[in-house]
Amino acid sequence: MKVKYTLFIVAIISLFISCSDEDFSTSSSVSPLYFSVDTVDMDTVFANVPSSTRSFWVYNRSQNNVRLSSVRLVGGNQHGFRVNVGGTYLSAESGFQTSDLEVRKNDSVRVFVELTSPKATTEGMTLIEDKLVFSQLVAMEQRMLLRARSWKARQVYNLRIRRDTIISGESPIIVYGDIRVDSAATLTIAPGTKLFFHDKAGIDVYGRLLVKGTANANVTLRGDRLDKMFSYLPYSRVSGQWAGIRIYEHSYGNEFENMDLYGAFDGLRIDSSDVSRPKLTLKASTIHNCQGYGILAEQCLMEMQNCQISNTQNDCVRINGGKAALTHCTLAQFYPFATERGAALWITFDKYPLVTCLLQNCLITGYANDVVMLGKEEKEKGVLITFRDSRIRMPKIDLPYVNATFDNIVYEQPTDTAFSPKNTFMTFDEKNLYYDFRLKKGSGAINAGNALWTLPTDRLGKLRDAKPDLGAYEYAE
To answer: CB–CB of 391/444 below 8 Å?
Structure first.
């Protein structure tokens, strides 16, 4: 019933929009109607989960009123479509149709469509179609095609992991509430698993989390909206869709590999802990488009290899003390939804002591002139941070910074167009908010790494050659 009320209220509002000032006339004529779209395509929806609302306009561009003898949903309730025409819901009681609807001359009627596709019985996607038939008094019919691809999905609610558990499956899993991994349990997410998180849902790790994707079967963690915010902007490119992952104080030995996480608030939050015990190993993974931090690591032992952390409103990577090592990582700060954005990398040692932080063969860039922030200089602490064989968008430091060393660094300058993102990355589409941070042909990051620190394969499992490229990706023709 709630869905019906939504359609009813929205449709009533549309009536006020579409009303003209002329008096209502009961005269009618047969004239073709015009539609704002030729097909209502719902894109992809989860089976048995209500979709968002689509709408279209029906125009009468003639100089006569047009009376429709009926507007009928051909499939009735067989396919799960729900339709409201000009304020009238096509219900089962009315036979899924409305009669004697008049579209006045030079006026329009708005039609709203929603879908809850039937529970799927087969894996993968199923094409669902129905037709909306507009019939006039003298045997004139016009049809609107309603179409969607229904994806079989499993739904879980407030899932609590109390013993060692493996999550796997070909079908997507929609998560409502939180997944909580208890302190005595290990949760393993198998290759190719796709988790779609509802608003504010996330993963809380008190025990251990193993994300075990492969180069050919990444684990995907994202929001559950499959529709679009605007015609050019799917929700998959919108940040803040779900809560992200939090690793709590007494959780150790977490391993994430070949993971694609995007659209969260904070991608990954790591609480302070014993820095002598490995907290997180992150390999060949992407954290992209977060409304908070990409990674916020508080005093822990963390290692990152072949990782892309990109486009976050706060810092892409914030390291507050502890011990960290980043090899062949791309940190790209081009967050599009706010003009004030964090750094690509921020390393501090005022809240928690920093043991060491090493970055090598990395590509660190962004919109700002300086995308690397370092803690306040403390001479008595000596060298804590080492940057080597990397490219960084920051001014070259004239006077030594006593807590960091910079060895064989290429400093990006805003005035040098060769370092621009469009000359560095495969795709940098600011209009449609689509980014592919693989390297573009001619990029200065190609062959710029040091073979001494190289990794055998890149983010996508491609073999690196004797002259490795900077960042997470090895260039391929």
So the answer is: yes
